[in-house]
Amino acid sequence: MGAHPYTPAGLDLPGYVPLRLSQLEIVGPYLGASLFVLAAVWLLSGRCGRLTKADRLLMCWWAFTGLTHLLIEGPFVFTPDFFTKSNPNFFDEVWKEYSKGDSRYVARDTATVTVEAITVLLEGPASLLAVYAIASRKSYSHILQFTVCLGQLYGCIVYFTTAYLDGFNFWASPFYFWAYFIGANSSWVVIPLLIARRSWKKICVAIQHAEKVKTK
Amino acid sequence: MGAHPYTPAGLDLPGYVPLRLSQLEIVGPYLGASLFVLAAVWLLSGRCGRLTKADRLLMCWWAFTGLTHLLIEGPFVFTPDFFTKSNPNFFDEVWKEYSKGDSRYVARDTATVTVEAITVLLEGPASLLAVYAIASRKSYSHILQFTVCLGQLYGCIVYFTTAYLDGFNFWASPFYFWAYFIGANSSWVVIPLLIARRSWKKICVAIQHAEKVKTK
After folding, report:
1. Does the residue A15 lie in any domain?
2. Chain A residues close to B210, C-beta within 8 Å
3. What pLDDT, in 10s, does the model give residues B124-171?
4. Which residues form the EXPERA domain (chains A, B) (predicted)?
């Protein structure tokens, strides 16, 4: 059994190749690229006429979350051998680092892989479609955003509940529990809740109005 | 290792108490009670004025699915020892029978229990709320129905994907695969898809209308 930094220590990871990048070398580029995406979408969306600040902020979020789903979570789903590669790329290193907060990633736990696969294949493209839908003021914009939020929330419930039922002991230390398992995921609980609530309200108002004028 | 009728044969179920009821004694009462609920809601909803036939059919579905989630799936979630009880009740027997189509139920697989718990705690009450919302023509009726449908669909995707990733070998025979694993679950794929599509369209039409008259 090769030595690895994950919990439980008994986890067998044959062929594990140790991390080469430091935490800063992993988190830094991700945060930097994310800030770049947020700034670029904010500036570009300012050139689309008639968009409210709320819409522009939403476009920033959907671009950020869509790219995270596709470019960060995508490689995890489609690289089952990421932790044994002798020449690991940045994304392999990301998931070796994140696994310190949840070793089910490196262990390829079924529920975790399933939630990630749904996130990458459905929520990733749908998030980017939401950027376009908001910019072009499509009538499906709210229900699409609501759909992606529900998917993200359902995924988080499955993610946290399966961790709880399977023993709640997958982090290398309390630091990684709070920073990665809780911290890194909290945005995908709080922000989808806020957006879903907003879309729900907007939809109810529109339906109420439509009922009044008997569009039926 | 006690003898049991489930696959894989190596599954260890200490204290397993064999089924006493026949398939007919289990499926018969469930189908009978379901038909009773469907008929009762159909007849009662006919007395509410102004409800379309589509609305009345939807009320029948939401009552049936809500009661199935709460009364059939509820006991599974909250009775971890259902297969060892010396005096099993009807619901214990239901899940011992269904496990012939998916032994992850009797094995209490984490992902399966998680999806069932979400279904019971969130989608069960929300389905019954949908019956009320349709009857009272609430403005949140469509978005609520859409929410429950997405939950059911996400649950089905997790359910089938985890089965696939874990080896796709949980049924006692092809009959149980088709009748239980596929057959019994197919309604919760097809009907939520149809209702979600309908609600999506209704919401888009209402939003389109609201945009036109600049309710913003």
Report:
1. no
2. 205-206, 209-210
3. 999 999 999 999 999 999 999 999 999 999 999 999 999 999 999 999
4. 54-196
